[in-house]
Design brief:
The complex is a heterodimer of chains A (about 425) and B (about 500).
Chain A lengths: L1 H11 L3 E4 L2 E4 L4 H14 L3 E4 L5 H4 L2 H4 L4 E4 L6 E5 L4 E5 L4 H9 L3 E2 L12 H7 L6 H4 L6 E7 L5 E5 L11 H5 L8 E8 L1 E2 L3 E9 L2 H13 L4 E8 L4 E9 L1 H14 L4 E4 H14 L9 E4 L5 H14 L5 E5 L4 E5 L9 H13 L3 E4 L4 H7 L6 H13 L16
Parallel strand pairs in A: 2-4, 3-4
Antiparallel strand pairs in A: 1-2, 5-6, 6-10, 7-11, 8-9, 8-10, 12-14, 12-15, 13-14, 13-17, 16-18, 16-19, 17-18
Chain B lengths: L5 H8 L4 E2 L2 H4 L16 E3 L4 H13 L4 E4 L16 E4 L6 E5 L4 E5 L4 H9 L3 E2 L12 H7 L6 H4 L6 E7 L5 E4 L11 H5 L8 E8 L1 E2 L3 E9 L2 H13 L6 E6 H8 L13 E9 L1 H17 L4 E4 L3 H12 L1 H4 L6 E4 L2 E2 L5 H14 L3 E6 L5 E2 L1 E5 L4 H20 L18 H4 L2 H14 L16 H5 L3 H10 L14
Parallel strand pairs in B: 2-4, 3-4
Antiparallel strand pairs in B: 1-2, 5-6, 6-10, 7-11, 8-9, 8-10, 12-14, 12-15, 13-14, 13-18, 16-20, 17-19, 18-20
Helix pairs in contact in B: 1-3, 8-10, 8-13, 13-14
The chains are: A alpha+beta (about 425), B alpha+beta (about 500).
Chain lengths: ~425, ~500
């Protein structure tokens, strides 16, 4: 590989490294990124837009299983372009890490959302490409609602901006919504603007062990109905029970009042404040991808059907003798399912059985860290109106399929 | 002679679903941007998604341009018909299909009126947050097309943050069912792309909407300022202090005078140079905490008086006055140019100062009423459309105000959309490559460009827009080349 990398590096005028067995171009600006794309087009080589690769196994597993081309990492484009404290917005290059963004906005009394794991590795571009929300989603909403604008590089070198740096703006199509969560299949994100949130005056964390999922979900439902200033409401399975975590964030006075409601609903909950509460939040954040390992599946269901859907998923997995650890956010209708055994090559049958049971209960499963073949098993077929729109968009933004994935967004025929 | 597709459409929607007579079609010849008018060939009003799908398929087969329409309350010409085209309206799609209090969502047909949805939700202790001034008439589908805002979007966000799902009828008549209220889309965020696309990607027939718990306590404040500058500066400081009222609005003296002399009279102090209307929501501790932080800021910027609405009745009157402001301006002049621009909140005073100077230089009467908390300004110019020279000056002033906003980091539109009105200005903000990407999205979904043609995107790139000044392009598109506006009734708003 080293000879190939040297040749390519010389051809593009861009630094290449060998990352996880694949040649990785690390342009320092848009012109260099464009040069890499032009080179890849000339050589007919697939390109994987990449940040640091912290979510590669989850979002583009085909590139973990084999390395069919070049990764184009934006991690060398890592500057904060503008932080406007007075307007509550930040604009940064795609390679800026989440930790760097956090530190920048913290100085002005703001907090970045989403609150995600591995902030020292996770880049802004990778965050947007993956489209994953954080542990704070209950209070702040999903990541895609925070993106104000994006500058992107299309496969043919076109550099296009959508949106802007304003918290309110309806000028033109919201292509930045299309790019967010597209997993690098439409463009290379070069720069993005996000809206920010005020750093809360106080955080309180509560935890309570519940006998089982039914008890935990019932308590969670009561907490949700109490309309608390909840940053996060998380249920975490353990061997013998289910741990309920609640994090409140906001003004101290407001939290005092909210705490009375929590005490009434969870009289025996452990209570943490200050740095201990922050540490609990940090642990919950990291639980989304412990040690960098993502869940194999994500369950989604409308909130009022979540309990039944989760029960069906758990039951289905038990029937298939698949050991599961679950981290659920019931107030959002989502659950991460850690099922390492699914990564075995012959697990498509069990997986489809679990999917059928879950669907019958009103939920559906999305693939997370799974082999490509299993992503394909869960991906919607291209032959539907939605699939056709997605294929048409990919076809217009990347007619040569330079960034294409075999199973995202839909299963290619 | 009847259009060749007429009988096929009639068979689908029935006699109530077709508007054919020339007098009847007059009601559809413009939206709130009355300067731009055209007569649709036909108006089709399907009752269901299935009817809409079949109608769109027929129109696709015949290559007919289509203009989707909600209530026609838009202010940028987004629902202005196309000569020879068909308007497809959602006026008969008015059912609330499901209201799920436990799930905190509603699934509604696109023609449901915004205010009616909130009224229905209130019975369950919930509400729908986006509250444009036209909410008594505008539809949810129209809100989706424009990504509508309103005063309370300062805290809760515009429509795009509240749409959980859509059923879309594509330009070819296919039905995309994206209705499920799931937290995250599988695949591309087609819902996010569709919201704010101004009818160019198809017709939304059903919308799944997030509902929020109604706050237990709402406090409404009126702060009177000795000048608009101080009022703007106080808002900039409130934002910089990261405070979170639910709405922050500014009304200037001319606006207040008009409102207080109208049926919308709300008790605003008639001699105030500027008034800040602010709302704070939440439980008791939260509301008091925010008020405790806001008051010193308002006082430090010279607020002469700060008072709370005594009761729900007064609060309702104050908001009716605010939301009736555009209509109240009719007593100043027959017509009102409602500008809609957006700027960083750090630049509020600067933009207002520039807008004032631009209008003064042209002898125009400017009033300001705006969503200060979002930086979304409405510098409104009163005029008489029967005076072509005044119309020219008004459009020129509007263009200059827009450019001034862009130069200061702002954008063309905060909530009214681009439509026809700002088509010519897209190149002030975007370059050819930016527009190329948008055209690619459009080409993917509507390769024939039949959906709402001639709106939002200059299809020939910025060369097209730069051959003549944007307001010339706009008035020509509205009235035909070199034709002054006629004296028919109705103004821009």
């Amino acid at each position: 590989m080293s000879t190939t990398i040297e040749r390519w590096s010389a051809a593009c005028g861009v630094t290449f490294t060998a990352d996880a067995g694949m040649p990785c171009a690390c342009p320092t600006d848009a012109d260099q990124a464009r040069a890499v794309l032009a080179f890849a087009a000339a050589e007919n080589i697939p390109v994987l837009p990449l940040g640091s690769g912290s979510k590669l196994a989850r979002c583009r597993p085909e590139w973990v299983e084999s390395q069919p081309g070049i990764a184009l990492s934006t991690r060398a484009m890592d500057q904060v372009v503008e932080y406007v404290a007075g307007d509550g917005t930040i604009t940064a290059q795609a390679g800026a890490t989440v930790d760097r963004l956090r530190a920048t906005v913290s100085a002005g009394g703001h907090r970045l959302s989403p609150d995600v794991a591995a902030g020292e590795r996770c880049t802004l571009g990778g965050l947007l490409g993956a489209g994953l929300s954080g542990i704070d989603r209950l209070q702040h909403g999903p990541l895609r609602h925070h993106v104000l604008g994006v500058t992107a590089l299309l496969a043919d070198g076109t550099q296009a901006r959508s949106g802007g740096r304003l918290v309110k703006n309806v000028t033109g199509f919201d292509l930045h919504r299309l790019y967010t969560g597209a997993r690098g299949t439409l463009c290379v994100i070069l720069e993005a603007s996000l809206r920010l949130f005020p750093e809360p005056e106080q955080e309180l964390a509560f935890s309570l062990a519940c006998a089982d999922w039914d008890v935990a979900l019932e308590r969670a439902g009561q907490l949700r109905a109490a309309n608390l200033p909840a940053l996060a409401l998380v249920l975490e399975s353990r061997t013998e029970d289910v741990l309920l975590h609640l994090i409140l964030a906001g003004r101290s006075q407001h939290l005092q009042e909210a705490e009375r409601s929590v005490a009434a609903l969870l009289p025996r909950a452990q209570r943490l404040e200050g740095s201990a509460a922050a540490e609990r939040r940090s642990r919950l954040r990291e639980a989304a991808a412990p040690g960098g390992a993502w869940p194999q599946l994500t369950l989604q269901a409308p909130v009022h059907r979540f309990q039944a859907a989760l029960a069906a998923a758990h039951s289905g997995l038990r029937e298939q003798e698949l050991v599961t650890r679950s981290v659920a956010q019931p107030a959002l209708g989502t659950c991460d399912l850690f099922v390492p055994a699914l990564e075995a090559a012959d697990s498509s049958g069990p997986l489809l059985a679990v999917r059928a049971a879950t669907r019958q209960a009103g939920g559906h499963l999305q693939a997370a860290q799974l082999p490509t073949a299993l992503h394909a098993a869960l991906a919607p077929a291209a032959d539907s109106p939605t699939g056709r729109w997605q294929a048409a968009l990919a076809g217009r933004f990347d007619p040569q399929g330079r960034f294409a994935s075999p199973s995202f967004p839909t299963l290619r025929p | 002679m009847a259009a060749p597709y007429r009988s096929a459409l009639a068979e689908i929607v029935g006699p109530k679903g077709l508007v054919e007579g020339s007098a009847a079609r007059l009601a559809y010849e413009s939206d709130g941007l009355a300067l731009a008018r055209a007569t649709p060939e036909l108006v089709v009003l399907p009752r269901t998604t299935d009817e809409a799908s079949r109608c769109m398929a027929i129109l696709h087969e015949h290559g007919v341009p289509v203009v989707p329409r909600g209530a026609g309350t838009g202010l940028s010409g987004g629902a202005t018909p196309i000569e020879g085209g068909v308007t497809v309206g959602t006026a008969r799609m008015r059912d609330v299909l499901e209201l799920n209090p436990g799930g905190r969502y509603a699934r509604v047909q696109a023609g449901v009126v915004n205010a009616d949805l909130t009224r229905a939700a209130r019975k369950h202790g919930l509400f729908y947050a986006p509250d444009p001034s036209s909410q008594a008439a505008c539809t949810i589908g129209g809100n989706v097309a424009n990504n509508s805002g309103g005063p309370h979007c300062f805290k809760y966000g515009a429509t795009t943050r509240h749409v959980l799902g859509l059923v879309i009828v594509s330009p070819t008549g296919e039905i995309l069912d994206l209705a499920a209220p799931d937290p995250d889309p599988a695949g591309y965020d087609l819902v996010g792309l569709f919201v704010g696309s101004e009818g160019m990607f198809g017709l939304a027939t059903e919308v799944t909407i997030q509902l929020l718990p109604a706050p237990p306590i709402v406090e409404t404040l009126v702060a009177v300022f000795p000048g608009l500058d101080a009022c703007c500066d106080s808002v900039s400081e409130l934002i910089a202090a990261r405070l979170e009222p639910s709405a922050i609005e500014i009304l200037d003296r001319l606006t207040i005078e008009a409102v207080e002399a109208s049926v919308f009279a709300a008790g605003y102090p008639a001699d105030a140079e500027a008034v800040l209307l602010m709302e704070v929501e939440g439980d008791e501790a939260e509301v008091q905490g925010i008020l405790d932080d806001c008051m010193p800021i308002l006082e430090s910027h010279g607020a002469l008086e700060i008072r709370r609405a005594r009761d729900a009745g007064e609060r309702k009157r104050l908001w009716a006055g605010r939301k009736g402001a555009f209509g109240a301006m009719g007593r100043i002049a027959p017509d009102l140019y409602v500008a809609d621009v957006v700027a960083p909140r750090t630049k509020l005073r600067e933009i207002v100062t520039v807008a004032t100077a631009i209008c003064r230089e042209r002898g125009l009467k400017l009033s300001n009423v705006f969503h200060a908390g979002d930086g979304n300004l409405h510098p409104n110019i009163s005029y008489d459309r029967r005076d072509p020279e005044e119309v020219r000056r008004v459009l020129e002033a509007g263009e200059l105000i827009m450019r001034a906003c862009i130069e200061r980091g702002g954008s063309l539109t905060g909530e009214h959309g681009v439509g026809l009105e700002k088509l010519g200005h897209m190149c002030d903000l975007f370059g050819d490559e930016d527009l190329d990407a948008m055209l690619r999205a459009r080409a993917a979904i509507d390769p024939d460009a039949r959906m709402n043609p001639g709106k939002l995107l200059p299809v020939h790139g910025c060369r097209e827009a730069h051959t003549r000044s944007p307001f010339e392009a706009f008035t020509d598109a509205a009235n035909g080349p070199s034709t002054p506006p006629d004296s028919s009734p109705g103004g821009i708003a």
